[in-house]
Structures are given as C-alpha cells and as structure tokens.
Amino acid sequence: MDIVKKDRLFGFVTNEEFWVNLGAGTLKIILILLLCVVAKKVLRVAVHNIFKVRQKAPIRISERREATLLRLLDNVIKYVLYFIALIMILDTLGAKVQAILAGAGIVGLAVGFGAQSLVKDIITGFFIIFEDQFAVGDYVRIGNFEGYVEAIGLRVTKIKSWTGEIHILPNGSITQVTNYSLNNSVAVVDVSIAYEENIEKVEEAIRELLPQLPAKYEDMVAPPELLGVQNLASSEVVLRIVCETKPMRHVSVARAIRKEVKMHLDEKGIEIPYPRLVLHNRNEQEKQSVQQVKENA
C-alpha cells in the first residue's frame, strides 16, 4: 500500500505536463497583474494629460469640477481594471467564466433588491457630480457636518472638519447641502468708539483707510465699505464695516480689518471705549438733605 502511494506521489512530482501548466499559469497570472498595473498608470497619466490640455482651451469647465472628475475617473479606471484582471485570472485557473458571469448577473439582480441603499448612494453620487452641487475643495455643510470636501465617490463623500476629523457620509443620506464656496463671502466688522469722540471725524478717518487695504490683502475682492452707525450701546457707538472677499476668506479678512482700523485710529488719537466705573461720593450737605426728606416723609 505504501509502495502504491509512493508511486503516485512520484508520478505526480515527475509529471512534466502538470509542472508546465502550473508554470505557464503562474506566469500568465503575473503578466495579467503587471499589465493591470501598467494599464492603470498609463490610463491615469492619459486622463490627467487630457485635463491639462483642456485647461489651455478658451472654453473649459471649472477647476472644482475638473478636480472632482479626476478623482472619479481614477476610481472608475481602478475598479474596471481590477474586475477585468480578476476575470482573466479565473479563466487562467480553469474556471468557467461565462457561467460565473451569468450566475453573477442573477445574484446581482437578487442583491439589487436587497441593496437598495447602495444603489441609492451610487445614483445620488452620480447626480451630485453631474449637477456640480459641490466639488473637491469646497467648504460645505451637510446635516450636522461642516468642513472641506476631501473626496467624492459614487458611494460616499468625505468631509474634513477644521479640527481635522474626516466624516464619511453615504451619498444617499445627503438631502440638503449648503455650499459656501460657490460665491464670494462678506466680512462684517463692528468698530466701537467712545461717545466723547466726534463721529464725523471717526468716519472720515476710517474712509481714508479703507481704500488702501485691497492692495495689502489679496483676499479682498473690493475695497471695504463703511455703512455708518450700527448701534448706540450703553457705553459706545458701534460703526459697521463690510467687505466682499473671496469664498471662505471673510474670517481672516475681518481680523485684518480690525487690526488696521485699530492701528489707524490710534494714529489719529481716536479713543476706543473700554469698561468704566464711575464712583459718586455724597458730601455732608447731600446726606443731610436726604435725611431731612426721610424725616418729612
């Protein structure tokens, strides 16, 4: 019995046809994987070069959409090539690819009914990109999440908050989007001055400063505008300044305007109010008068 097993094992090891087929199959699989990697790199380079050529055309799509389409096309190329490589490897291993594809079609139909949320994610992702609702690099608010769009796929969207967290949202759950990057922003700055100051003098000083600021800060689309007195508070007069800025640059521009206004008012000797406490000390005559009023009452 042992001799028979040894003969079978020896015959298996010395089977020239088996080793030739194994070597040829292994070599074919390696070639398939190499071709897949090479084709992926070549196609990605070709796509990126096409978009570079389009950038020089007189009529071209926006940079936002170009970045989004590049990410999407990279993903499509990757998944399609991986699928083709998998089918070719299965065919090399002797699997009946046609039967697998036919079975996969039936299974896919059955899974499609049970994976409606996945289908919804993909369809929603397509329309997000097609309608250019938002793109990679935009600052958006989706539900309770707010931040910059890191990536848009056919199934999920990734948003990075300003504190560094990455939020991954299924596209099917995106029902309302607020996009802050489509139009210019507006910086609003309130400047407080003391009641003792001359308002007309302060407004003249601020209007003298504002036209000079766009040359120093490139994020300003237009010179800031002084609207006038915004509020009469308990211990201060509030003036409001507004400035149109590039998208999502209003916060930094507002800080710059506050700094420049403060420095300019200091140069002009104009006082910005600060908390004050007034103490009144009654003299003896006032105390006697109050006491007399109480006695008469």
UniProtKB/TrEMBL annotation:
One of its GO terms (cellular component) is plasma membrane. Residues 75-116 form the Mechanosensitive ion channel transmembrane helices 2/3 domain. Residues 188-272 form the Mechanosensitive ion channel MscS C-terminal domain. The chain crosses the membrane at residues 72-93, 99-119. Its main location: membrane. Keywords: Cell membrane, Membrane, Transmembrane, Transmembrane helix. It is a multi-pass membrane protein. It is found in: Cell membrane. Residues 118-181 form the Mechanosensitive ion channel MscS domain. GO terms for molecular function: mechanosensitive monoatomic ion channel activity. InterPro entries: LSM_dom_sf, MS_channel_1st, MS_channel_C, MscS_beta-dom_sf, MscS_channel_2nd, MscS_channel_C_sf, MscS_channel_TM-2, YbiO_bact. Belongs to the MscS (TC 1.A.23) family. May play a role in resistance to osmotic downshock. This is Putative small conductance mechanosensitive channel. It comes from Parageobacillus caldoxylosilyticus NBRC 107762.
